[in-house]
Amino acid sequence: MYKALAFKELRETAWIGGLVVAAMLLVVLEQMGWHLFERRWLVPAPLPAGIVLSDPIPFVHRGLADGLAVIGICGALALGFRQVLGESIRGTWVFLLHRPAPRQALILTKIAVGAGLLFAASAVPVFVLAVWAATPGTHASPFDWRMTVYPLGVCLAATSLYLAAFLCSLRSAPWHGSRYLPLIAAALVMGWVYVTAWWPLTGWVVALVSDVVYLAAILNAAQTREYS
Amino acid sequence: MTLAIETRGLTKCYGGRPVVHALDLKIPVGCVYGFLGRNGAGKSTTIKMLTGMVHPDFGEMHVLGEAVADLKPATRARIAYLAEGHPLYGWMTIDGLERLTRPFYPKWNKRLFDQIIDHFELPRRKKVRRFSNGQRAQVSLALGVAPDPELLILDDPTLGLDTVVRRDFLESLIQIIQRQGRTILFSSHILGDVERVADRIGIMADGVLRVDCPTEHFKEVVRKVVLEFGGPPPLFPKVDGVISDRVVGHRRELVIANYGDVHRDAAESLGAVSIEVLELNLEDAFIEYTRGPRRSLPVFDGDEPRVQSTGVQGAA
């Protein structure tokens, strides 16, 4: 039964995942030296003598983290709000939650699909880049698999933002300020992970802890809120 | 008597105002209960509390013998709930909705589901968003009935349906009712629907359950008494059972529950030129029961008939 619900969630949100993958692939291709975002039109042609447009060094060039952060934020917000507000606007919460299954399990299924989709859509292109970078002869720079810890930490932080968006749209609050408080907290988590590139494991820890906190808050809100 | 639904002192407030106030409801197993009331009377809130979608501020409620707050999935599987407006996933087809719903129910009756869909001639591959309101109601009914529920809770299921579709829907509902031991609670604004289907009614007014009795009994006990006077009508004495009391010209019109000797004596004591006691149909009785003094405020001046109202009281 959860499979049927997961399929329904996937069917409703796959387009967001698709957009994230597409955007991430552009970032990855850029990292592979395709120069999709190279602002050649800003550079006087021909280039002055001695100046060469170099390929970015995979997992060192900030472009990957920047792209991940921007795409992760957009994807996380779109997914989190879509999954909750979609049900609220259509009035289908009552249909969904009357199914004979624990309410928390129904919500967890939604979240598993949303968070899984977001993480997969952002992390798989990173993995593809890592495989490419690990293949000898592809680029003239060193690569170690530990270099993937930081960008994957950014992907994980995006799931915190996704959960915060989910919580914001699920939880009733009298004021907009208090309603969007989880988003502000998640933005801080994202910021922390983004700036601590030199110490990426702390980013993982912070993101995982915040994910657990958000998950608990969501399950509590799902149980206590009213669906009218 | 085994109860399918039981509430004790059920209360829900919004903004400090009780929308459902101390509701004591007892619906026996096998009963078809018509839940009536004007907009905002508290019907939908009560139904949402019974299905666990809204939490009560006070009171207890049990459905199929289990407290609603701790309703187990297995018990929920025995309850069908058709929410107001029949919310469904518009991008899905009927087959898609069945694929989503069916795995949750161990007793899913595929044959019955197909029968209902075929009976209403619903296109299985058309997206639900392209369906009319009536077709959505029919899909909801099929999805609700297929798990073979013991209790059906329907929140204004015929709202927005045209007469023909409504009749079809109700006839299907009657067929479903015929299955033994099935309890149905349904709210409605359409008295004809209730009269056709329900064997017991409850009327909510301003969050309070004002009537809870068999449908026929309600029609039998409510009477309209018209007192004609030569001049301005005198005040009617304060007696129990007076639901509404209006003055129209030289006439005093009263609606009385459990009309009896006390009311007859009170009417005769006023010295009326004529006293007429009329039976009311369900719709008129419902209107008299539920319309507050606001509806009866004077709206004409001068030579127009003056209409005024005193309070509402009484119970059937």
Question: Would you give an account of this structure?
Answer:
- The complex is a heterodimer of chains A (228) and B (316).
- With 228 residues, chain A is an all-alpha fold.
- Chain A has one domain (2-34, 57-224).
- Chain A contains 8 helices and no strands.
- In chain A, helix 5 (149-170) runs parallel beside helix 8 (200-224).
- The longest helix of chain A is centred in the N-terminal third of the chain and has 33 residues, at 2-34.
- Chain A is elongated, with a radius of gyration of 20 Å.
- In chain A, 39% of the residues are buried.
- Chain B contains 10 helices and 15 strands.
- In chain B, a hairpin with a 2-residue loop joins strand 4 and strand 5.
- Mean pLDDT of chain B is 83; it is low at 294-316.
- The interface between A and B is medium-sized, with 24 and 30 residues.
Could you outline the blueprint of secondary structure elements for this entry?
The complex is a heterodimer of chains A (228) and B (316).
Chain A: H1 2-34, H2 63-90, H3 93-97, H4 103-134, H5 149-170, H6 176-179, H7 181-195, H8 200-224
Chain B: E1 3-14, E2 17-28, E3 32-37, H1 43-50, E4 58-63, E5 66-67, H2 73-76, E6 79-82, H3 94-101, H4 110-119, H5 133-145, E7 151-155, H6 163-177, E8 183-188, H7 191-197, E9 200-205, E10 208-214, H8 215-221, E11 222-228, E12 242-248, E13 251-257, H9 261-269, E14 274-279, H10 282-290, E15 307-309
Parallel strand pairs in B: 3-8, 3-9, 6-7, 7-8
Antiparallel strand pairs in B: 1-2, 1-4, 4-5, 9-10, 11-13, 11-14, 12-13, 12-15
Helix pairs in contact in B: 4-5, 5-6
